[in-house]
Amino acid sequence: QLPTGLYKKVLVILHDSVLPYMNEPTLMMDFLTVAYGIGGAISLLALNGLFILIHQHNLEYPDFYKKLYSLLDPSIYHVKYRARFFHLTDLFLSSSHLPAYLVAAFIKRLSRLALTAPPEALLMIIPFICNLFRRHPACRVLVHRPGGPADMSEDPYVMEEEEPSKSRALESSLWEIQSLQNHYHPDVAKAAAVLNQFLSEMEDDISGLLELSAYELFDKEVKKKAVDVPLEFEQVRGLFGKKNDIFAEHFSLD
């Protein structure tokens, strides 16, 4: 057992400063699997080391995707390690051999959580979801279901279900992204509207969006060239500026 602060310090450097220099990196399997099961930021940081062991050293982790699915909660769009987490999640969901129900569960959960996410996270997660549709065409039924949300009395997706196979995500519809098409931020609304069109085969590059911050988003808006918008289309007449104002008969503005 390690203090939380020490756990984080170790896991941040483990994948690139420790594992490559070990004769037997598999000795860290138990440590990383236990850390992955702790939850919160520690689980997110353990993903890097686990990825190396799974990818290069044949580590078998039967409930890996179930645990990864459980890590998706409202805080995931706000944590310090968001970029690292989504980069690895993108890698883990890149295999074309993953079952459609599993990918659909991830798409649906990410979309549901997106309803309360900040704009800088939405500009990253919407292209992320679009890439999942490109890799797994069987999941496109979530977008192109006949009738869509209009024919559903309620959403069959079970958000509280921890097992992706029982979440009924493939029976649902992606109404959450449709809702984001009316988002107050124009860039988010524009990004969400992409799903109304036929998706291209080439994936979007999300590497530059993973670390997008609210400050950068705000700075971008401030630097935009302002367009002069006419605020008054009637010539001011009289005290209150109305054309047929009774005060205009008795008062005038110099």
From TrEMBL:
Say yes or no: keyword Transmembrane helix present: yes
Species annotation: Zosterops hypoxanthus
Family of the protein in this entry: Belongs to the CBF/MAK21 family.
Query: What is this protein identified as?
Result: NOC4L protein
**Pfam families per record:** CBF (PF03914)
Q: Which residues fall in a coiled-coil region? A: none
Which GO terms of the cellular component aspect does the record hold? Answer: Noc4p-Nop14p complex; small-subunit processome
At the top level, the lineage of the source is: Eukaryota
Q: Which keywords fit this entry according to its UniProt record? A: Membrane, Transmembrane, Transmembrane helix
InterPro entries under this entry? CCAAT-binding_factor (IPR005612), Noc4 (IPR027193)
Which BP terms in the Gene Ontology apply to this protein?
ribosome biogenesis
